[in-house]
Specification:
The protein has 325 residues and is of the alpha+beta class. The protein has a domain of 154 residues: 2-Layer Sandwich (60s Ribosomal Protein L30, Chain: A), CATH 3.30.1330.60. The chain is built from 6 helices and 7 strands; from the N terminus they run ααββααββαβαββ. It has a 5-stranded mixed sheet.
Length: 325
């Protein structure tokens, strides 16, 4: 190389990939998306603006074609089939009993036009009557018949219970009046129909008490009256509730004993007499002592009428008791 020739210097510059051109691939994807959206909205516009005839043609175009002949064949063999061994099997040529689905061919427009949905083929649901399952209509009829039967039985039971209460009251009063020793106690008997049942009350009167003052001992007359009541209710299936009541006069005995204990003891003594007179012990559903909290005469808390025994013959279990007034 001569001394006067300048050296040739080649400088290569590499582009930074972080700030280079990204290419045009995204434009193709965006163009495809916009084309698809335009085609979709164009289809919606065509469906909305087309008349019934055009919709019918469009539906026919997309509806699947399905042969409905169901025959073995009308060609050269006329429905016969040649087996592998050369035997000929003649086809029946009759329509198959299995119904082939039509895929909406009866009314294809119903698929595209909501205005024709009410004209779609009716769907018939068949029920297997050989099993235990029943169609809804038959189930409703059975339920209605069952409810009517239950209502009839409940009304009949209610009527019988009302008649039984009248008969029970008359039977007890007649036996008390017919018994000379108990005739005077007929004034101590009261009958009341409550929300729990028929309440028979043995009420004290001036000069005539069911129990000795401050005592739960049952005297002979009270025992005879309770025996009459027991004979009348012994054969009934109804539960029995017994409650004892006192007046507001404080108990004058021991400090630990009060009208609460006295009323409860009188109710328990009444239960024992009823059981001894023939009433099943399992019939006694409840005994309670309420002291002077439920007086017959609220205006006179110390009145003798407030001292009493209540024997309630409960409503039969198959009859719903009425709500308390």
């Amino acid at each position: 190389m001569a001394s006067n020739e300048q050296p040739i210097i080649i400088k290569r510059v590499e582009e930074d990939s972080d700030h280079g051109h990204h290419g045009g691939g995204w434009k193709v994807a965006y163009a495809d998306f916009m084309t698809a959206m335009m085609a979709f909205f164009l289809l919606l516009w065509i469906l909305a603006s087309s008349d019934e005839e055009k919709l019918q043609g469009l539906a026919d175009y997309f509806s699947p074609s399905l042969s409905q002949s169901h025959r073995a064949g009308d060609g050269l063999l006329d429905g016969t089939v040649t087996a592998a061994d050369g035997a000929i099997d003649a086809g029946e040529g009759a329509a198959t009993p299995v119904k082939v689905p039509t895929f909406g061919q009866e009314n294809p427009l119903a698929v595209f036009d909501s205005r024709l949905r009410d004209q779609a083929p009716e769907v018939v649901v068949e029920y297997d009557t050989s099993g235990s399952a029943k169609p809804p209509s038959e189930q409703s009829a059975l339920e209605a018949a069952r409810e009517a039967q239950e209502a009839t039985e409940a009304a009949q039971a209610e009527s019988e219970w009302q008649a039984a209460q009248v008969h029970l009251q008359s039977e007890i009063m007649d036996k008390v009046v017919d018994t000379p020793a108990l005739r005077a106690l007929s004034e101590n008997l009261r009958f009341e129909r409550t929300s729990e049942g028929l309440e028979i009350q043995l009420v004290d009167r001036s000069g005539s008490s069911m129990f000795d003052k401050g005592s739960s001992r049952v005297d002979d007359l009270t025992r005879g009256l309770l025996s009459v009541i027991a004979d009348a209710v012994a054969d009934l299936p109804n539960d029995i509730m017994i409650s004892g009541h006192t007046d507001s006069v404080p108990y004058s005995g021991a400090t630990a004993y009060s009208n609460w204990e006295l009323s409860a003891d009188r109710a328990a003594a009444t239960r024992r007499v009823l059981v001894e007179s023939g009433v099943g012990s399992d019939r006694i559903a409840r005994i309670s002592g309420v002291a002077d909290t439920d007086p017959l005469d609220p205006d006179q808390p110390d009145a003798p009428e407030n001292r009493r025994i209540s024997i309630t013959i409960a409503y039969p279990k198959e009859i719903a008791a009425p709500a308390a007034q």
